[in-house]
Design brief:
By secondary structure, the chain is an alpha/beta fold. It is about 35% helix and about 15% strand. Strands 3-2-1-4-5-7-6 form a 7-stranded parallel beta sheet. The longest helix is centred in the middle third of the chain and has 16 residues. The protein is globular and about 45 Å long.
Length: about 210
């Protein structure tokens, strides 16, 4: 019988009405210093009270049981986060969602009175128009885009950025984003994070000896 994830792994972080929370989703396999730096910039530039790392419940690249893999990634991410205002949770496993639009539809009603900002990298903005129900996502929460090396022009020239251009806040007004009614978004030029979980996974794969 498959065990369920530990309760502290999938618990919703403590929150209160009036808080401003950034939501940072992903597999976090592995979590790394780039995630932490983005979160610290988000806390400061967006005027957030907390940033939550929402660790996705399953990683298709792994053969371990989903609950075991989720527990491992959440606990490893907490060691990397190492900050009282960065919280790590696998709550998505409790919500039973597979797509961001569905996640927000089930999560936001649980956060009554909390101002939520969705955080993602420029690489995601470049392909945002391919996400399932991306217009629904944009209409649900303000979005903060964090730069990635060499991706700013591609991301800002993409279909989603053009479609949402009228609702873009200048970077100087980023601290107001959490208070804006969606659709609303901003592009933060810093930090330039070269790390990615995909690259780190590739580095840790054993090399063929053939």
């Amino acid at each position: 019988m498959q065990e369920s994830p530990a309760s502290d792994t999938v618990a919703l972080p403590l929150h209160f009405p009036g808080m401003r929370v950034g939501i940072f989703g992903g597999s976090f396999d592995p979590a790394h210093e780039g995630h932490r730096q983005v979160s610290l910039v988000g806390l400061r530039a967006l005027g957030l009270d907390q940033v939550w790392w929402l660790v996705s419940p399953q990683n298709p690249l792994k053969s371990t049981a989903p609950s075991e893999d989720l527990d491992r990634r959440v606990r490893a991410a907490r060691l990397v986060a190492n900050h009282p205002r960065i919280r790590v949770t696998g709550i998505e496993a409790t919500l039973g969602t597979n797509y961001t639009a569905e996640l927000l539809r089930r999560l936001l009603p649980r956060l009554a009175g909390v101002s939520v900002v969705w955080m993602m990298g420029a690489d995601n903005l470049a392909q945002f128009h391919r996400w399932k129900d991306w217009q629904t996502i944009a209409a649900s929460v303000p979005i903060a885009i964090f730069n990635r090396p060499g991706l700013a022009l591609k991301a800002l020239a993409g279909p989603a950025a053009h479609s949402l251009a009228a609702w873009r806040l200048p970077e100087q007004a980023a601290a107001n984003l959490a208070s804006e009614a969606p659709p609303a978004w901003t592009f933060l030029s810093r930090p330039h994070i070269p790390l990615s979980s995909t690259q780190l996974r590739a580095l840790r794969k054993p090399r063929s000896t053939s």
